[in-house]
């Protein structure tokens, strides 16, 4: 049985997932996550030596784990935090020199298309809008009849908005308004048409945690979607510093306490722009799309 590993160097986390290939299916049997927060190491557009060193430590650990499990191939890619850094070439060289790893640096558009691939595989949807809210960027993919028609990447995500716009942990109403304005201005500048889309799909940790938080808040059973009114209520409770709602979030995902609200504000702005009523949540995302593409499944 062949085994494959994939490492996702994101703005919030660095994740390792290992899968075994069972013919038509890929089964994940191991995962590990480090909450590095690469974006927090950026100073004047440059990731600091401390941030690079910490990243190399994590990657070296992941390489050793992969060797011990005896995987066939280890695929490693990076997204917005490294992509948008002024010292990107230095970072990639230091990683290669220290670990022997060649990192695949994804463009924003390619990241968006891989998220789309995962969604179409998961839900069998052939037309729609997919949104991936990451720590350092937000990807949009419009697709029709299974073909990508438009792919865009905004160089802001949940963690970068937190770092650049928020003084405390949870944004104030004024800070929330600023974030929503930034997102709306981006969408206008990119010429997104305001076609009504009652349902969109979403991938990434922010949207998955929001789905779980909404289920917890409303005491709902498992479901793969949530509606915009539910989202607005929960986000307003968090901005109002409602202790019970904040406690729910801390129980679900304490490491995302500072990024969930800015991520939710991005999502709400997108929903307002397209008059969205419902968000379909995919448990698969860019990592799944990347691995499927590599293995041509």
From TrEMBL:
Which Gene Ontology molecular-function terms are recorded? pyrophosphatase activity
Ppx/GppA phosphatase N-terminal domain residues: 31-296
CDD domains reported in the protein's UniProt record: ASKHA_NBD_HpPPX-GppA-like (cd24052)
InterPro entries xrefs: ATPase_NBD (IPR043129), GppA/Ppx_hydrolase (IPR050273), Ppx_GppA_N (IPR003695)
Q: Which PANTHER family match?
A: EXOPOLYPHOSPHATASE, RETROGRADE REGULATION PROTEIN 2
Family the UniProt entry places it in: Belongs to the GppA/Ppx family.
Q: What is this protein called?
A: Ppx/GppA phosphatase N-terminal domain-containing protein
